[in-house]
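Appendix B.2, paired examples.
Example (i):
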Amino acid sequence: MLNKGNSDLWRRVRLYIVGFTIGLLAVYLMFGGRGGCNSLTPGMLKLNDLLQHTKICYSDTAICQMKCQQIDITELKEAFTYGKVDSKKSQDFNKIHPLYNFTGQTRKGKQLNVICMEMDSITRIIYVHDIAKKDTCKCP
């Protein structure tokens, strides 16, 4: 009788381990390819949406600032990818053309402050600034 209780417990433990393993496999198949936690907040989702689904154009001021501070387009896209929207400095998200003020970090470690405006299917970059550098550019 004691031997039967031991084998019954061992069978239950094995069944639990098999079920747990199947559950882990199911979770990995459902959520495994999402790249971690890079799109958690609504602001991050919005920046990703602006980068992926709209055409990006630059104002004359933004082009001048990017040239002056040696910021290229790939670094700006990295700032979009790893950026966080500052909702206190941004204009209302429910307006026709909302204005987003966000700070993002590039892979090289630059901290960029970017202001952009969403206009239908176009994202217009208005202002670009490297936070670590002093703003000495004389841009219009």
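Example (ii):
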Amino acid sequence: MSIDFMVFDPTSAPRDHRDFRSWYHEQTDWPDDYDHDPSVTTSGIQSWYRQMIDHFPDANVPGVDSRAIDERYGDYSFGKHICYVAFRPNVADEAWARVQSFAADHGLGTYDPNNDDERSGDSIRFPAVRTGRMSPSTEAYAASSVRGARPAILWRQIVFQLMSAMGRKRTFG
């Protein structure tokens, strides 16, 4: 079992949640000869990917010994405008927090298909237009959606995100 997330180029994705889901299914309809090559996607997604693999290495990199793959590895799949990534459940909360944080750094949108009720667009997050960062309501939702996290950790995440948005350095441990 895996917990899956998607990062996407917001200029390519439809804003209507029903249209977005159709677009999502088109993007993730992988061909039989699919190659896990990150060069096929946008430069923003490639930059996001480079940040992610520092914390969650790519299990699909050529030469990776399948016996060496542990729970911290991610299964990254790339499309022209997306990166779809799967994690093991025991690291999903941390991975989702990093997926969203790094996506905000690069002006990318995020989608959590695991929590999509298909009645609203709450699991689809576009970055804020002006700053390239996610809107405060989206950041608050992201912090509240970190399943099982302790309140003190959530508080630190929220404060850190606000301070980062204001350009201040982190001063707490």
